[in-house]
Amino acid sequence: MYELIFDEEAIKYLEKLPQQTSKRIFKKLNNAKKEPHRYFERLTNRKEYKLRVGEYRLIADITKSKLIIYIITIGHRKNIYKKL
């Protein structure tokens, strides 16, 4: 099973979200820890992956050799790709 590591920015964004939304995100991430490539989709022409949770997107870097999912940023689908 993969280990989840969060960036400071991602944690701050999660804390600002409504509790119900953050619970949905954690539930989806918990499922993704077992088989991340089933849930995450690779971004076009980039090494990062995205995970869709309703109107929110999580951008992550997945390291197979160390079994780590590093959550880089979280944001609304309108604004998330501007951060990259």
Question: Layout of SSEs?
Answer:
Layout: E1 3-6, H1 8-16, H2 19-32, H3 36-39, E2 41-42, E3 49-53, E4 56-63, E5 68-76
Parallel strand pairs: 1-5
Antiparallel strand pairs: 2-3, 3-4, 4-5
Structural class designation? alpha+beta
CATH architecture: 2-Layer Sandwich
For the largest beta-sheet, the strand count, sense and barrel status come to:
5 strands, mixed
Order of SSEs: EHHHEEEE
Order of strands across the widest beta sheet?
A: 1-5-4-3-2
Q: Helix count?
A: 3
Strand content: 25-35%
The low-pLDDT segments are: none
Q: Give the CATH level 1 class.
A: Alpha Beta
Radius of gyration: 12 Å
CATH topology call: YaeB-like fold
Structural overview:
By secondary structure, this protein is an alpha+beta fold. It has one domain (3-82): RelE-like (YaeB-like fold), CATH 3.30.2310.20. Helices cover 32% and strands 33% of the residues. It is globular, with a radius of gyration of 12 Å. 19% of the residues are buried.
Short synopsis of the structure:
By secondary structure, the chain is α+β, with helices and mostly antiparallel strands.
Task: List the main descriptive attributes of the protein structure presented here.
84 residues; 5 strands; globular; YaeB-like fold; five-stranded mixed β-sheet; 3 helices; alpha+beta
